[in-house]
Predict the structure.
Amino acid sequence: MTNYFADENGFFGQFGGAYIPEMLHHNVEELRQRYRSIIDSESFQREYRRLLKHYVGRPSPLYHAQRLSQRYNTQIFLKREDLNHTGSHKINNTIGQILIAKMMGKKRIIAETGAGQHGVATATVCALMDMQCVVYMGETDVQRQMPNVLRMKMLGAEVVPAVSGNKTLKDAGNEALRDWISNPEDTYYLIGSVVGPHPYPDMVARLQAIISEEIQWQMKELTGDENPTHILACIGGGSNAIGAFYHYLDRPQVQLIAVEAAGKGIDTPETAASIARGTVGIIQGAKTYLLQTPDGQIIEPYSISAGLDYPGIGPQHAYLYEIGRTQILSATDEEALAAAFELTRLEGIIPALESAHALAALNKIKLNPTDRVVVNISGRGDKDMDTYIRHMQK
Ligand SMILES: *Cc1c(COP(=O)(O)O)cnc(C)c1O
């Protein structure tokens, strides 16, 4: 039988692993030894599920979108991660990891953030758990994402601008690693997607798997069958996508489709499509597809949506794509904007620009009237209002 999950060393076929400097070995190894037994423990599960229910607001609804279904002449169900506390799926992961950090006896949380969404989700759970929180953010991003910087500060986090390189996500990541190396005992590094060295991709996938766990019983309740025919999700690093796919990976009758950000187009330099345009290399300690020059320098990605603006893709997704278990499509800025306006007008739901990429794929696949299609609405569009207003038709 095909194995869809990480092996002992965190490999998914040739992808994944932990390509890290010697000085990080102790920190990563400590986490690797502890994470499975903590996640599987009754005390973790009790607290994780209590917080998901009463703090995050789970289960998130699975909503049969009738007007959208009519428009595409099929049956469409929206998984409403946009209704979670803080507005996206990211909180599922930060709630889980802060509990793991606590159970490991850590006192201080560090994170890196690009657009600031993961920083806000991290600062939120640090306030909740009374943990010290330091968020590294490229100086360019600090200026571009002021509302999120202010949110993090109000939540009690210290936001440290990274001033090296392009002053964006990659540089913030380097600063966070430097911090972790200097503070191995009391500090926990909280990564925001299914990226980074093992065990992060596997750990974050397990924490986001709550999404497909719920889809199973919700589909059963709504249609009498646990299985949809298709699941669509957008993909930056890949955490909301793997969360929506997780319990369906070994059911080949369910088509799993991830949609990456084409930006201005996959044939232009302004893209974030790591599968369409990337090659295999190492990024953030894992082997996967990434946007890089022939001599291995990371190419700055571009997408209208800040959350998909990442130069790599989680290693499990690289593997699932390579073995043909998932299909990976792409949507341009224009297509995502059109899909966002369409959902808003048909269903009264303003999606995040990231999630709009998943919706845009409804135009790219062949659907039958009896198909049951789940689209993961990873987040809400409040944060994208400036962009939407700029593109509103007059
Ligand atoms: C961060 C973010 C994403 C992209 O992250 P993944 O790890 O690929 O899920 C997608 N949607 C929203 C709303 C986000 O905030």
